[in-house]
Amino acid sequence: MTVSTSWEFITECLRNELQEYGALLGLFEDQQANLLRRDADAVLALANSLEEQVRRAHDVREHREQAVRRFASSIAEPKDSTLRQLIHHFPAEVHPLIIALIDEINHLIHRVRRGARQNQVMLARTVEAHEEVLRMLRPDSFTKTYSPSGAVAHASSPAWQAAG
């Protein structure tokens, strides 16, 4: 693998990774919009798409990391070298491109993680709100207990028992 084909191939890998993380961010944004609209069916429908997109993003990232390891090995650098550490082996004119792609991917990863956390919090609050409504409708169906660590846990009776 020559340096010329290496930087071109690695750049293509970075572009693919950027595209997959962008698609993942879009799905999290769609999920959040559906959560805000309280569209449970749409949220559920997105779950499989999210899982599939996470797998694709992981696979593309793994592919890029393998390409970087192969390149590092081909130039007698440690296989665990980061792309930023290896950039001086590429032609100077492509350094800004590679740095921009790396920075944008890192920015997207940050936004994806933030979106995932926000959606997780929204989902948890939705579940809590539903449990509260159920507690008001059937207070005898829920029992508060304490875990060994002292945290309050809510146990609920199965619906068939609560119905009597």
Automatic annotation (TrEMBL):
Q: Which residues cross the membrane?
A: none
One Pfam entry for this protein is: FlgN
Biological process, per Gene Ontology: bacterial-type flagellum assembly
Is Transmembrane included in the keywords of this UniProt record? no
Q: Tell me which UniProt keywords the record has, alphabetically.
A: Bacterial flagellum biogenesis
Which InterPro entries does the UniProt record give? FlgN-like, FlgN-like_sf
Q: Which SUPFAM superfamilies match?
A: FlgN-like (SSF140566)
Can you tell me which family this protein belongs to? Answer: Belongs to the FlgN family.
Task of the protein: Required for the efficient initiation of filament assembly.
What this protein is called in its record is Flagellar biosynthesis protein FlgN
Which organism does this sequence originate in?
Answer: Nibricoccus aquaticus
Q: What is the lineage of its organism?
A: Bacteria, Pseudomonadati, Verrucomicrobiota, Opitutia, Opitutales
